[in-house]
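Issue 218. Parser rejects a valid record. Input:
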Amino acid sequence: MLATLIQNELPFDHTIKASHILVILPKSEKLSKNNNIPGKEVLKNLLERRNIKLSKINETPVSANLDNGALCTWVMVDANQSVFNQQTCIRRAIQQQFIENPTEIHLAVYGSTNQKHLFSDLAIYITWVNGAALPVRKKTPDRKSLETIVLHGYKDEENFTIQRAKAEGNLLARGLTVLPPNELTPQTYREQIKKLAENEGWKYQEYDVNVLRKMGAGAFVAVAQGSDPQDAAIVHLQRNCDKNTNNKSIALVGKGICFDTGGHNLKPPRYMQGMHEDMNGSAVALGILLAATRADFPLKIDCWLAIAQNHISPHAFKQNDVITALNGLTIEIIHTDAEGRMVLADTLTLAEKQKPGLIIDFATLTGSMQTALGTNYSGIFSNLDNLAQKAITAGKKSGERVCVFPMDDDYDENLESKIADTKQCALDGEFDHILAARFLNKFVNDTPWIHMDLSASSHKNGLGAVGSDITGFGVSWAIELIQQT
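Output the parser choked on:
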């Protein structure tokens, strides 16, 4: 639940009773004489005592108690820096406020009209996404959710609709991803999605294992058959829009592996820890659908979620199996821990059959992508150069940065099989992220397509606008991309 927003176009009134105040200023070497900011003298004395230049609070926000006992934090934002750096700057400032678990925060913005607009957009979004407490199962939670945000110095006539939508989508993605695997099973996940679909007016359809087996979706079934119970399914959600006069359509596809043991190629404990987060791609796709719905974007969206688990059992698929995917391609299994591309293969085939204008899939797919980029960026692939460039632009504007990787067809020689149409992967995984993309490319035909390998789904101590380890990366990026197309 997002905090209630109250807007006040006038500057901060010093007679207001406020226990927590964040002051956001444009970067400068000295304070403007026209700005009677909260705690102005306290800030001057603090900087003098610490021998810090005023402009340095762009890099390191500072906090102090005012004479009335309020906690005040001051930060300067450089509008010439990247959106990512601006987000990080404000997020670090707001985190100094959240240490005290306030129920209400006052945001006071200063500068030119354009600067106040920019700072307000950033601060409201960042306060919303970090103000809501994520699910925990402690008897006494460490923190509670923020209830009220009061903005001083700027008023948005549209009530920050896009920022609110992105925050709601991001929080849905993060909230689902942190749930423990005994709580979020394929069955309970499907139940939650169905309830959400009813609330949002989305059409809900699911293809369970029995249906998929009859359809010939062997790639998905190969992974799902190792679980007991066999509660896996491909879930299809559809949002239609009466405003969609141009018949624009987009398909979102998400990997939803609720727990990944690695199958017969069992992961060691160090790498199995956290594998309940392997459904993050599906949570991000859901978050995007929610955000686009709340923002009332004029386009049709189909959301396809590949929900399963990868377990070890007598029925689990194994190395050297040859299976037939839904599109008829035969696949030689090389490694059972490359299950994500298997469930995505048949899900992409279903999405492609409806001929959308664009397919975007999201998956925590390969360890090699994290090796290549770390967790600061996510990697993307596309079958169209102009789409790749749009993806980069969306990353810069959203603060969720992406790097484009090559996907030339000569990589396919690494997937050549003597007994099947293709191998699923190669055993030496140094560039497995590229081979995974080449494999998935076989299931989208000529449909415009972007594949995001979510290496930035989790980043220690937060990333950009988001302060939790689980970042919800991809929601804000996709909303920015959709607005471009």
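Fixed in the parser; the record now loads. The radius of gyration is 24 Å.
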